[in-house]
Amino acid sequence: MSVANPEYAKMLSFSKYFKILLIGLLLPLILSIIILSYVPPVSRDALTHHLAVPKLYLKHGSIYEIPELECSYSPMNLDLLYLIPLYFGNDIIPKFIHFSFALLTAWLIFSYLKKRIDTCYALFGVLLFLSLPVIIKLSITVYVDLGLIYFSTASILYLLKWIEKNFDIKYLIYSAIFCGLALGTKYNGLVLLFLLTLFVPFIYLRFFKNKTASQSKAICYSAVFMIISLIVFSPWMIKNYIWTSNPIYPLYDNLINHGKEVSNKKIASHSSDSTRSTSINNSNKAKGNWGPFAIRKLVYGEKWWETAAIPVRVFFQGKDNNPKLFDGRLNPYLFLLTFIAFINFRKQSNELRTEQKIFLTFALLFLLYAFVQTDMRIRYIAPIIPPLVILSVFGLNEITTVINKKYSENTRALLKGSIFAFVVFLVSFNIFYIISQFRIVQPMSYISGRVGRDEYIEKYRPEYAAINYANHNVSVNARILCLFLGNRGYYFDREIAFTFDLVPKVVLQEGSSDKILFDLERRRITHILVRYDFYNKWLQDNYNNREKEVINKFFKKHTNLNFTKNGHGLYRLKNQSVEDT
To answer: Which pLDDT score, from 0 to 100, does residue 211 have?
Structure first.
C-alpha cells in the first residue's frame, strides 16, 4: 500500500484553489468589459474610419473609392465585419466583435501555456493579457488592433508548430494565412510579414534535424510564406492599385509613384474639397518630413536620453490620449518578468529555448522598428503583447522553480508570499485602470436609461448636437462643409466635406465676400458647421486683418445661423435652391 506524499497533496490543493481564484477574477473582468462596451461609440477612430467608412459603403451599396478619406484606403478585414451589425442599425455590437478577438487571443495564450506549463499558469497568462490597460481600452472601442493581435499571435504560434512537427509545410501555410489576415486588418501587419519572412529560413537552417537541410530549400520556404501571405492580402492591394497605382496606399506613395503623381492627381480630380491653403500643405509636408526623434525633441521637448529610453519607458509610463506618453498603457510586469524567464535559459529543453528566443527576438525587433519609424504609440506595438505575456508567465514559473529547488519549506513560503504580493501589486495597476474606465465611460447611466443615446453621445462629442439638428432639419440634398471637426463623420446623415480652410487663400486675396460664396457654391456647399474655438484660433494665427474682415463680412452677408450649441455653429448659405425641412 502506497503512502501519499503530503507535499504533493498540498500542492494539488493549492493549485485547485488558485484556479478557482483566477476564474473568479476573469469572470468579473470580462463582465466589466462587456458593460463598458455597451454604450454608443464616441472614439475618434471609430467615427472617422472604422464605422464611418462601412456606413458609407452601406449607403452606396458597395465598396467604392472615397478620395477625401485617406483612411478608406487602409485594409479593412474587421471593418467589413462591422458592416453586418451596421446594416441592422446597431453600432454597439462592433465593439463586441472587436473584443471577441481579445478572447480568441486569450485562448491561444491559454492553450500554449497549458501545454508548456500547466492550467494554473495558463489562466494567469489570460488574466495578465485581458487585464492590461491597453487591451481593456481596445476591447471597449471600435478599433481593429485586437484583430491584428490575434492574427499575428496565431501566425507566430503556427510557425512554432511548424518547428515542432518537423517542418510539415501545412503548418507553415497556416502561419502564412494568418499573417495575410493580419496584413488585411492593418498596415502594421507589414512589419509582421517582414520579420516572419526573415525568421523562416533562419529557423529552418538552425533547427532542421536532418542534415540534408539546404539554403535553397530554406529560401523556398521563405518565399512560400511570403507569397501565400500576400495572396491572402491581395484583394486590398489590387483595389488600391486600381485606384491609386500604389497597392499599399498611402504608405510609401512618394516612392512608389515618384514622378507619376498618379495618386495625388487622382484624388485631387475626384475631390471637390481640396481647399487647404498653400501654407497648410507646406506645413503638413514639413511635419511629414520630421522623423520621430525630431518630433519628440521639438514638439515634446524631450532630452536625447529620454527619447533613447522609449523602448523601456513604454512599459513604465503611459497615458491614454497623451501622445507624449504613447497614448496608452502597458504594465511593468511585461518588462520585468520577461527577462526573468531567461535566468536558467541553458537548463531548459531545446524546444522551449527555441520558442522563447523566437518570442523575444520578434518582440525586440518589432519594438525597435516602431521606435525608429514612428512617433511611438502603444497600439503600434500591439502584436508584441501576447509574446511578452507568455514570456512573463515563463518568468514567474522560473522564479517559483528556483525557490522550490534552493530553499527550505519555511523560506519557500516566505519567498513565494513576497513574489505573490509583488505580482498582485503590479496587477493592481490594471484593476485601478478598469475602475477608472467606469468613471470615464459611465456606462450605467446609459444602460439604466437615465441618459438617452443622444444625450450620452453629446456629452463626449460636443459637435453631436449640431449634427443631430442637421440630420433632422437640413434637406437630404444638402452638403455641409465641416470646419475643424476632426473628420468625425459617422453620425452625419447628410453629405459632408471636411477642411481647415473656409476657402483657399487665393480666393481671399481677391478681397470679396461674394467670391467666397461663389467658390462654396461651385463646390455644392449649402451649409457650414464650425467649431468656434479652433477655427477662431486658426484665423488669428494664419490670416491678416484684411482677410479676416472679408471672412467676417461673408458670414454676415451670405449666411444665416441656424443652430448653435456646445461651441459649434451651423450656418446656411443664403439664396440656396435646397430648402431645409
So the answer is: 57
Model confidence at 263, in pLDDT bands (50, 70, 90)?
very low
Measured CA distances, 165 to 116, 170, 201, 224, 231 (Å): 16, 10, 16, 18, 25
Question: Is 184 in contact with 77 (CB distance < 8 Å)?
Answer: yes
The set of cell numbers assigned to 160 is: 512554432
All 3 cell numbers of residue 418?
513576497
Give the phi and the psi of residue 486 in degrees, each rounded to 5.
65, 25
Question: Can you tell me the distance from the alpha carbon of 334 to that of 342, in angstroms, rounded to the nearest whole number?
Answer: 14
Sign of CA dihedral 300, 306, 307, 313: negative
Assessment of whether the complete model's pTM goes beyond 0.85: yes
CB neighbour list of residue 71: distance below 8 Å, 6 or more residues apart: 48, 49, 53
Are the C-beta atoms of residues 540 and 578 closer than 8 Å to each other?
no
SS3 state of residue 229: helix
Give mean pLDDT, residues 387-400: 94
The rounded distance, in Å, linking the Cα atoms of 442 and 327 is 21
pLDDT, tens digit, 9 for 90 and up, residues 208-227: 766 566 788 889 999 999 99
Give the Å distances, CA to CA, from 246 to 64, 178, 234, 409, 483: 16, 23, 12, 65, 30
pLDDT of residue 434: 95
